[in-house]
Specification:
The chain is about 55% helix and about 10% strand. It is α/β, with parallel strands linked by helices and about 375 residues long.
Length: about 375
C-alpha cells in the first residue's frame, strides 16, 4: 500500500519512509534489530532499494547514525583504499555532528583526545589521519561514540552501504562488527550488499573461524515485487504524473523488468520525462549495464570464457553441463571441470548469475537483455 509518496518515479534514493513502496516488513525487521542492539545485513540485487530502505529508516525514525557510502569512495578515489575509507568516514562523522547537536560538545571532547583526530564545531567537521604513522584507531573512535550515546541514553547506528567493496583494503569487517557486538551496547550495525555471495565471503557468517560465527545477525533479503505489485506501482506513478499509459504497456513493462523496483522507477521516469517507448528505455538501461559488465570482464584473463558463459545463460536458464559444452564448442577443446566451476562460482558471488533448481540464470532482466543484444 502506498501512502503520501510525493514523486514515485524520482531517481533520487528515497530518504523518508513515506516515499517507499511496500517495505513495511523490512522496516519492521530493522526496528527490531535497532531495539535489540544487534546487527542487520540487508541483501539484494542492485536497484532493489537497499540504500533507500536504510536511509529512510534512519531519517524517518530520527535515529542518530554514521553512514559510510562505499560507492562514494569509488567515485571520489577511483577505487576503494585506506585513504578513501578514512576520508569517507571523516565526511560521515562531520554530518553526524551537524545533524545531532546533543552529541556535539561531548563527542568533540572525546574525539579530540584520540590520536589522529582533528575536530571542530564551527562548522561541525571531523578530519581523520589515515597514514600508517598516525592512523586513527577505529576502536577508540567507536568507543567514544558509544560512551556519549550511553550518557544520552540513545543508540547510534553505524551503517556501511555496499560493504563488499571494502574487501582487500586491510579492514576486517567481521572483526569490526564482532567488536561492536561484544563491547559497544549503544552502537548498532547495519550493512548492505548487492553482491550476495561476496557478502557471505566478507562476513563469514557461517564460517567457524569467522569472528561473527555464532552471533545473532539478522539477514534481511529484499524481494522482487510481484507482477501485480509492479503493475500497481507503475499505475500509481503514472497517475501521479498525469500520464496515461495503456494496461497492455504496464503489463509488458512488469514482465520485462521482473519486479526490480529500481528498473521500474527508471522506466517510469523516462516514460514521463523523456517520452520514450518501453523498448527505447530498456535499450538505454541495458547499454549502461553492459558497459559496467565490460569493466569487470576486461580485467579478467578469462574474459572470453566469461562472455560465452553469459551469452549462453542469457538465452535461457542453463545447466552446468550445457554451459560447459558451449564454452568447449567455442574453444574447440575440452576444459578443466574444476576451473570452469570456479568461473561460474565467481559470477554467482558477484550476483551476475544465480543458481536455481540446478540451472543458472541471469537474475537482472535488464542485464540479461543487454548481454543478449550488446555483449
Amino acid at each position: 500500500m502506498l501512502v503520501g509518496v510525493p514523486v514515485l518515479f524520482s531517481l533520487e534514493p528515497r530518504s523518508r519512509v513515506e516515499e517507499l513502496y511496500d517495505f513495511r516488513g523490512e522496516l519492521g525487521e530493522l526496528v527490531d534489530v535497532y531495539n535489540s542492539g544487534r546487527v542487520a545485513v540487508v541483501l539484494g540485487l542492485r536497484r532493489m532499494g537497499k540504500s533507500s530502505l536504510v536511509r529512510s529508516f534512519l531519517n524517518s525514525y530520527g535515529i542518530p547514525h554514521v553512514m559510510i557510502d562505499v560507492r562514494r569512495i569509488i567515485i571520489n578515489e577511483g577505487r576503494v583504499g585506506v585513504r578513501g575509507f578514512f576520508n569517507e568516514l571523516s565526511r560521515a562523522l562531520s554530518e553526524f555532528l551537524e545533524r545531532n547537536e546533543d552529541f556535539g560538545g561531548r563527542l568533540v571532547r572525546y574525539l579530540s583526545r584520540i590520536r589522529g583526530v582533528s575536530v571542530s564545531l564551527s562548522p561541525p567537521s571531523v578530519s581523520l589521519s589515515w597514514g600508517r604513522a598516525n592512523r586513527v584507531p577505529l576502536t577508540e573512535l567507536l568507543n567514544a561514540i558509544n560512551e556519549v550515546a550511553e550518557d544520552l541514553g540513545r543508540k547510534v547506528v553505524l551503517a556501511i552501504d555496499e560493504a563488499q567493496e571494502l574487501r582487500g583494503i586491510g579492514l576486517s569487517i567481521p572483526t569490526l562488527v564482532a567488536y561492536i557486538y561484544d563491547n559497544l551496547g549503544s552502537v548498532v550495525t547495519i550493512i548492505t550488499g548487492s553482491q550476495v555471495g561476496l557478502m557471505y565471503d566478507v562476513l563469514g557468517l557461517y564460517e567457524p573461524d569467522s569472528p561473527l560465527y555464532g552471533r545473532v545477525v539478522k539477514e534481511i533479503r529484499l524481494k522482487r515485487l510481484s507482477r501485480e505489485q509492479s503493475i500497481e506501482f507503475l499505475r500509481l506513478g503514472f497517475s501521479e504524473a498525469g500520464v496515461n499509459v495503456s494496461n497492455e504497456e504496464l503489463e509488458r513493462a512488469a514482465d520485462l523488468l521482473d519486479g526490480i523496483i529500481g528498473w521500474l522507477t527508471y522506466y517510469g521516469w523516462y516514460r514521463v520525462h523523456g517520452g520514450l517507448s518501453l523498448e527505447e528505455i530498456l535499450d538505454i538501461a541495458s547499454k549502461q549495464e553492459v558497459e559496467e559488465l565490460r569493466k569487470f570482464l576486461t580485467k579478467s584473463r578469462a574474459e572470453d570464457r566469461y562472455k560465452v558463459i553469459l551469452k549462453t545463460v542469457a538465452e535461457r536458464p542453463r545447466k552446468w553441463s550445457e554451459i560447459k559444452r558451449a564454452v568447449e564448442a567455442r574453444e574447440g577443446a575440452e576444459i578443466d571441470s574444476h576451473n570452469f566451476t570456479k568461473l561460474l562460482e565467481h559470477l554467482v558471488k558477484l550476483s551476475i548469475l544465480e543458481k536455481a533448481n540446478d540451472e543458472y540464470i541471469i537474475p537482472d532482466p535488464v542485464l540479461r537483455h543487454g548481454i543478449n543484444k550488446y555483449l
